[in-house]
Amino acid sequence: MNAKISFRDVVKTYPMKDETFVALDHVSLDIADREFVTVVGPSGCGKSTLMSMAAGLVEPGAGEVLVDGRPVTGPGPDRGVIFQQYALFPWLTVRKNVEFGLKLMELPAGERRRRAERAIELVGLSDFADALPKTLSGGMKQRCAIARAYAVNPQVLLMDEPFGALDALTRVQLQDQLLDTWSQEQRTVMFITHDVDEAVYLARRVIVMAARPGRIQQVIDVDLPYPRTEEMRLSPEFGRIRNEVWHAVYHQAPAASAA
Ligand SMILES: Nc1ncnc2c1ncn2[C@@H]1O[C@H](COP(=O)(O)OP(=O)(O)O)[C@@H](O)[C@H]1O
Ligand SMILES: [Mg+2]
Fold first, then answer.
1. Are residues 56 and 149 in the same domain?
2. Residue 45 Cα: closest atom of ligand 1
3. Is residue 175 one of the residues assigned to a domain?
């Protein structure tokens, strides 16, 4: 299989007072090149830990995390990471924030400018390119953070509840815009959300995780064609898949190993 990201038998434990806490218990998952997967599951089931391993920010305790068949040893420009909190530099304009990630790539100034311009346009912030973050709404700040990741043009986008704090309308707009760019640029996307509708709308596969210990509970295929449309959200098939995901998340059986 042509896996872009592979988690192989990944274990992560954290020491606790008198026991070890198992954050991830033998998790294996292959994400295909150009696939869009979403990850859902109860709080504390290890979603962020798993993604942080692909980002190169957390090391597995055991097992392997591979990107393009090579073990991840740290962050890199092939993987863009977007968190829920905006993490913008408050003293830099939208344009300078977006260009910042490119500085590390040692691109010529003209190329930096061009890439930043295009990314800012993609997220619909062109009119605010010279604005400071404090003058922007929450949704606009998040667009800026997304533009910063897009500008680097990473092959892989790792997104941890990126739209979680946004109002419903902004969220739907950013979902459609993300799907647009994903289909144009043919990236691989791993997207964590706690919103079941969002998980189904975006993904080709929904990975449902369970907690205590953190593990993959179920993988649910979303057999809806792209491009996804607003009408699809109302279709019986969408409703059926949403119910299946909902059930997998909220009616989780206890771990087989539990006494
Ligand atoms: N650095 C750490 N030290 C101790 N426990 C941690 C650490 N990072 C995460 N955890 C624990 O691991 C579990 C999984 O965390 P996380 O991956 O953030 O879950 P999720 O994103 O699904 O909510 C949680 O119970 C969390 O408290
Ligand atoms: Mg998390």
1. no
2. 22
3. no
What does the DSSP assignment read for 229-251? -GGGGGSHHHHHHHHHHHHHHHS
User: Is position 131 within any domain?
Assistant: yes
Other residues' Cβ atoms within 10 Å of the Cβ of residue 121: 12
* Residue 130 included in any domain: yes
130 in the same domain as 114: yes
**CB contact at 8 A, 132 and 93:** yes
Do 47 and 163 sit in the same domain of this protein? yes
Report residue 96 as tokens: 């300078």
Q: Which residues pair with 39 in a beta bridge?
A: 192, 207
163 and 254 belong to one structural domain? yes
> Which 8-state DSSP code applies to residue 36?
E
> Ligand 1, atom 4: nearest CA belongs to which residue?
14
User: Which pTM value belongs to this model?
Assistant: 0.93
The domain that contains 52 carries what CATH number?
3.40.50.300
When divided into structural domains, the chain yields a total of: 2
Tell how far the Cα of 48 is from the centroid of ligand 1, in angstroms.
7
Of the listed ligands, the closest to the CA of 208 is: 1
* DSSP-assigned beta bridge partners for residue 10: 27
Q: List the shell of residues around ion ligand 2, using CB closer than 5 Å.
A: 47-48
Tens-digit pLDDT string for the chain (259 aa): 679 999 999 999 999 888 899 999 999 999 999 999 999 999 999 999 999 999 999 999 999 999 999 999 999 989 999 988 778 999 999 999 999 888 878 889 999 999 999 999 988 899 999 999 999 998 899 999 999 998 998 999 999 999 988 889 889 989 999 999 899 888 999 999 999 999 999 999 999 999 999 999 999 999 999 999 999 999 999 999 999 999 999 987 666 554 4
* Residue 91 lies in domain: 82-153
